[in-house]
Structure formats: C-alpha cells, structure tokens
Write a structure and sequence with these properties.
By secondary structure, this protein is α/β, with parallel strands linked by helices. The protein contains eleven helices and eight strands. The longest helix has 19 residues, at 48-66.
C-alpha cells in the first residue's frame, strides 16, 4: 500500500484500531479514539462488548489447547493485545504454529513487527472470504498441516461480512478445508431490541460502512452442519466463564448480552 492510501485509511476509523484503543492499546489514531470515546462517554458500559469478546476468544483457545489442538489460524486477528493467541497456545505447546490473518495493512505491518517472534508464527494479509488464496499462501503452506486438527478463530469478524458475501459459505469453506477433530470458534454482535443497543449498532455500521448484526438463529446458522459444543451459543461473558465466587449468579448487563459466541467441532 502506498503512502497516500495509508494516509487515507488513517482519516477514518478502523475496526482493529478502535478495538485496540478500548482494550488499552496504543496503536490507534485520534479518529479511532473519538469513536471509541463516543461509546465510553455516551453509552457507558458499551466498551464491555470488546472486553468480554476478547476474553471469550482467549478462553476458547485454552479450551482447544486442552483438547490437543496444536495449530491455529486467527481470521481477522486485529492488532496485538495485552495477551495474544500465540501466547496462550505457547504455554501448552511451545512450538505450535499460529497464523494471524487480517485484511488491514496497518494491522499486518504492526503484527509482523510485534508478533512474529519466531518462524512458526506468521502474519498474513488476506480477506477471510478468500479461503483458497489464504490456504495457498507460502506461510500457511509451510506451517499448517490441514491433515491434522486446526483451531479456527472468527472473533467478531463475521459481523463485518455482508450477507451477499455468504458468511455461512465462508465458514463452510474453512471447515471443509480442515480435518476431522478441528474446532471453529465464532463470536458475533447480536441484534438488540432496545434504544442503547440499536444506537450502538447504527453507530458502528455508520462508522465502518459495512456489517450485519444477526440474531441468535442467524449466528447459529453460521456454523452450518458443525456440531456445537456445550454450552452452545451464549453471551461471551457466560461462555465457559472463568469462575469467580463473587460473580456467580450475576445478571448480565445489556452490553454483555450484545455479543455472543460458540465453539463447534468438525466430526469425523
């Protein structure tokens, strides 16, 4: 990407950079901070959407590791965070291969600078809808053995795939690519039925110019014929939560109800 194109991207908010700012990162610009501050200041508590989504993704990775999955592809990975997928995986499997994929050149450049700590971690510039193209990338061919189980992560990213881009087919193509025993994690914005969540949905779609929030049935449909693992589709805050004695039985805020996730298994 040339300098003019990069500067043009910096004049409008980026999903990855807004997410980074909310999570306490520094790889963002004023335009990203302004949008994030709108949610924080005028819709207090809405930042929990990003926070609980990230925490659930990392719990999903820990769960996959516990099932013996030793290689991962993080689709729509976003910017490096305080804890990243490879750090969770490497605590269990020190030489595990991890592929990070994003279509934002800013994300890819920063990821390559910060996350490629050895030659078994790679950051790839690609659109998650281009399954064959990503699978054929030299780093993916070098690191990922599709004949062995793979952990696929779709953290929030499918909410920015329009219906016309066939998100169900995209997940299906990826699940066809991986072997039996692989697991596929999805988190997604959930359509709301109150003023606050409708305002959040409209603001996000207006800011980024694309996206589709979906109801529970539509999110479940993204998994196709894959077998959902218990507890099925749940708000991220309730999806295999880290148990805390002072948090038992707590009622979720409307913001925590706005982001859901599920983990599925590809049967043999």
């Amino acid at each position: 990407m040339n300098d003019d194109a990069m500067r043009a991207r910096q004049t409008r908010p980026s999903v990855a950079r807004v997410y980074d700012y909310i999570l306490g990162g520094r790889d963002n610009y004023g335009v990203d901070q302004n949008l994030a501050d709108y949610f924080i200041d005028f819709l207090p508590g809405s930042e929990q959407v990003a926070i609980t989504a990230r925490a659930a993704t990392l719990r999903a990775v820990r769960s996959m590791c516990a099932k013996g999955i030793r290689q991962y592809i993080d689709l729509g990975c976003g910017l490096p965070a305080s804890e990243n997928v490879h750090e969770v995986v490497r605590r269990e499997y020190p030489d595990a291969p991890i592929i990070y994929v994003d279509n934002d050149p800013f994300v890819v450049a920063h990821g390559k600078a910060l996350m490629q700590i050895d030659d078994r971690i790679a950051v790839v510039n690609g659109n998650l809808c281009s399954v064959d193209e990503i699978a054929a990338h030299p780093d993916v061919r070098r690191l990922i053995n599709f004949d062995e189980p793979v952990g696929l992560l779709f953290g929030i990213v499918l909410a920015f795939v329009e219906d016309g881009e066939d998100p169900v087919g995209v997940v299906g193509s990826w699940s066809d690519r991986v072997s039996a025993g692989s697991q596929i994690y999805v988190s997604h914005f959930r359509s709301g039925h109150n003023r606050e969540t409708s305002t959040t949905e409209r603001k996000i779609l207006d800011a980024f110019g694309r996206g589709r929030w979906r109801n529970d049935d539509e999110v479940r449909a993204l998994f196709g014929d894959l077998e959902l693992i218990e507890p099925g589709l749940r708000p991220c805050a309730q999806w295999w939560p880290d148990v805390r004695a002072d948090d038992s039985g707590r009622e979720l805020s409307l913001w925590e109800q706005l982001i859901v996730s599920g983990l599925a298994r590809k049967a043999g």
